[in-house]
Amino acid sequence: MSGRVGRSRIAARFLGLLCAAAMLLPSGARAEYPDRPIRLIIPFAAGGATDILGRSVADFLGKEFKQSVIVENKPGANTSVAADMVAHAPPDGYTLLIAAASTLVLNPLLYRKPTIDPAAFRPLSIMVEVPLIMVVNKAVPAQSVAEFAAYAKQNPGKVNYASSGAGGPLHLAGELFNISAGVNMTHVPYRGSAPALTDLISGQVQVMFDPVSSSLEHVRGGSLRALGVTAAERTSLLPDVPTVAESGFADFRATAWYGLVAPKGIPEEVAKRLVAASDKALADPTFRKPLENLGYVVMQPGGEPAFARFIQQEHDRWSKVIKSQNISLD
């Protein structure tokens, strides 16, 4: 009997040590991540540039993790609706966000009391930039960026530029051009690119900085004229259109961009797995090519350090523009 009692005590002690060790592990690491479906929140409506990227990311992560990745579109309040949902989700890696420039950089600069603090997130990977193209109504006589700047100076108070909404990259690209070219165009915000493009084509406004993916068919069809690309390099979709920077406006750069983020506080091992999977996607031609064919600039793998540097550069760039133009959304 004493032998049985001794063995029982040893077994009980061993079990107790196992339980104690399990309690020391982060809650997200007790089962191998992921062991259930992941939610990927998109801060814009279905069908747009962010949605296309998000579904590509979801498809890749799903195959990589052998687990379902469910896309949920939560548009509203300049990305704040989606951001608030993810910021308050359990920090376990099962709720992720495709964050936009507005989420991590612009909203905190534009609102005196922003509803979402970027510090609520752990930025994991910068995924893509979306170049904008400077497009004009075909009745505008300018054939180049420099000619358009001269045209705007010759017609003070008569040049209006459209955007998909106040405070977004398209709006701020116009303000950056006002500064760079020394002009004073008037901003006309719309509820999305589609109605803005409709009025640009009809001549209600004269110019717009728009994602190449949504303006391309109008440029190729002749209803709009492309003058310049706002990214650092020309786009392969319009190789003959120069960048705004090479058109005489040095250092001009304005893009939409998107990255993968999680709620702050996710387990370190989970964060590492997500970063590794994101880097693998960015290095994979089957992930890159379809996006590049739509005009996205797919970033190189760089993980969290690259994303942190990118965010700081964007913050420095746009804080100068917003302060100098005294732009506020509240």
Task: Describe the overall structure.
- It contains eleven helices and ten strands.
- It is of the alpha/beta class and 330 residues long.
- Strands 1, 2, 3, 4, 5, 6, 7, 8, 9 and 10 form a ten-stranded mixed sheet that branches.
- The chain starts with a helix and ends in a 6-residue tail after the last helix.
Give a quick rundown of the structure.
By secondary structure, the protein is α/β, with parallel strands linked by helices.
Q: What are the defining features of this structure?
A:
330 residues; alpha/beta; D-Maltodextrin-Binding Protein, domain 2; 2 domains; ten-stranded mixed sheet; 11 helices; 10 strands; 19% strand
Chart the SSEs and their pairings:
Layout: H1 2-24, E1 38-42, H2 49-65, E2 69-73, H3 80-87, E3 95-100, H4 101-110, E4 121-137, H5 145-154, E5 160-163, H6 169-181, E6 186-189, H7 193-202, E7 207-211, H8 212-221, E8 224-229, E9 255-263, H9 268-282, H10 285-292, E10 297-298, H11 303-324
Parallel strand pairs: 1-2, 1-3, 5-6, 5-7
Antiparallel strand pairs: 3-9, 4-7, 4-8, 4-9, 4-10
Helix pairs in contact: 2-9, 4-11
